[in-house]
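Two proteins were folded this term; both appear here.
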Amino acid sequence: MSGAEDPPARAAPQAGSAVAIASFGMRLPTLQDRGARYGVFFATYLYQGLVAGFSLTALANHLAAQGVSSAEVGVHFAIAGLPWTVQPILWGPLVDRASGFAMGRRRAWSVLAILGCHAALAGLLVPDARALGALGGVFLVHSTFAALLDTACDRMVMDHVPPGELGRMSACTRAGFVAGTSLGAGLFGWLLAAYGFGFSTACLLAAAILAGLPILLVREAPGDALLSPARRPSAGGGRKVPFARFLRRLALGLRRPNALRLVALCFSVDGALALFELPFSVDLVQAQGWDAAELSRLQAGLAFAGGTLGALGIGLWCDRAGPLPALRTLFAASAAAFLATACLIAGGFAGSAGPLILGFTNVLPGLLIVALVPALMQASRGRAGAATQFEVFMAVMNLGSVAGGAASGVLAPVLPLSGVALLAGLVLVGAAALVRRPDLILPRQRPGDARSL
């Protein structure tokens, strides 16, 4: 991929500067090992999913069962999502231009991030479940470190995964996130109802620490230190582009019309999906009489079914045929699902058809990200600031999700759920039409575009 500097030649860690692998008398894996790559990135996104399943599904449903309105829940969790919206500016250039770490060019940041995430989650042991301000603050700090972890992992994927495996790697990370989300929603939905907030958060912290172990144990490349705060002696004279010049090159890439259309696509799709998800869950609990723990388990099961075998199928499809054919089909199918959902809700079947609606609106849209990630990487690679540009696209998706979640509480008294589902369906119809014209969203590759920053 295009980096922010020419990578310096590898130098062996000096004695005393790191925890040397030889001292263990064994060879620990690196990201150059195919199995280790899939294992590390699966576990990392499993970790992210555990926290998301706890906070966005199990805890949200638990709060709804206690009578907290969707507007209150939406605002506080929207605040917690803010670091994801500024992720490219907050962490992108820092990680993209990183060099000289004995632990590896990107991995040093991922280790720092996972330790910060664990420290933030430890703060959940203090607040009460109904102290929404304190909960929002804890998840805000956690999201800040989790965004750094995500940024570092995205860089390592672009650095170490061959182009022909991007679809399968996208499926792997999606399966990890979905498995974590399903486990987090189902298990913690039950724990919150049966044992309360304090015990549930202690279990979350323990599970998060276990899921974060692979990123601490698998090195980025041979010769890297396992754990060390030291910097690697400069051996290749790597040249770092000035920050201002880096930002100018990034801005030039993002000002292209196809990039702007892709930004609009990412924002509108995630915003439309988030606009419907939370109000429908709250309606099932508060208006349709569903049990919050049962709802969490059903959401977890549906997400798991679509995000494991389904994600693998989409990933293989993307690697063989390219991401756009899969993306077109998924957008069209998701649009049809939301339009059918609007009809069911308008006909008064929101409660009885709840499982079908949840299947419509969770499984298919959940697969979109599997095909969308390789498409975004394809649109970013070969451009100045390629890695950070990809992070901009992902951050715009997060911004859309945050905006949709925040707007859902505001629109709830004004726009009926059938109208929200109809709006989401129309957005997805537009997305399917846009993806049918690859020239509108993907840049033309020119020989000079592949130069390194």
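Next, the second protein.
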Amino acid sequence: MDLYTFLASFDGEPGYLDWAAFGPLSPSVRSEVHADAELLGSGRRTGIDLVAEHVLESRQLVAELLGAEADEVVLQPSTSYGLMQAMYGLAGGLMLSRAEFPSLTVTATRAADALGSIDLQWLEPEDGFVTPEVVREAIDDDTRALAVSLVDFRTGYRADLTALRDVIGDRLLIVDAMQGFGAVGADYAAADVVCANGYKWLRAGRGTGFAWFGERALERLAPVLSGWAGTDGDLPIDVVPQPAASAQAFSVSRPDHLAVARLATALRDVRDVGVERIDAELSQRSHDVMSFADRYDVPVLTPRDPRQRAGIVTLAPAAQDAGALAASLANHGITVTVRAGLVRVAPHVGTSPDTLRLFGDALAAFSSARVR
């Protein structure tokens, strides 16, 4: 698949600007689901085994996009499952922002309450951006790990993993890459754990999570939630073996092979096109959204620097304007996320000119009716 074929594969109706909430399944993913469902419905061992081969393929593709090894990747039902595996296996001070998505804040709190081995070190940056400066001011000798989103779900701020690594030194860097993996470039080598899911930007549907555990993470994290599938060898009957020495230790059960097939297909498309090319296209789409917002005097919360943003553009209208803006967008057939007075607009690389025109029309209508 080349870039132009990839762009053309966004075949949904105009008006969808909510990729940060859910990514409608791509045509190639939908085709793979139908084909593999038929194979699993045949009852033939060859068909069942053929679908199961997507497990290794997915791990290899994730590893390729991360610049890692396949045995360091383990498939998970969701991003949160991977983060739970990492945080429940941690001991010592864990630094994270209170403004992070609940997959981080709730998981960290539950792990701390359950095991008593984690000391939560909360960051409260004024703008919600977890910058190297914010971390540098808060870090202390008790800090053992930093957990951060690659892309902030509220503002679209893209964290600088390389700079964060420089600040935290030898401590663990745990990354929730849900809002960026496959859509923006990142220095994943700076991280120790990367968790994500394919149901947004990858267009693979739910159940397509995965996690990568680097060498430092494998050395320091205990596989507390390791299940029977987290062992080496065949089915462990009549014995209870030790967890596997690889990332496989951080798994509970076998994955859903239909979900894995969807993930493999989506990853293959992204790999073929190239994340850098996707990143460049997505940067232009987010720039287009910002340009419309500027034209109609709608404040933007997202950083302007392309190096500090991804596919999320958050509009911050005045309190009295938030309802009217949301209504105008809905009336023009635009799908976005409205939360706490903010309007999160999330285009993808295949967002059509028609969709952007509808978005501009909605802002124009809102602006003309606004009382200044």
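The CA atoms of residues 75 and 210 lie 4 Å apart. The longest helix spans residues 275-295. These notes refer to the second protein only.
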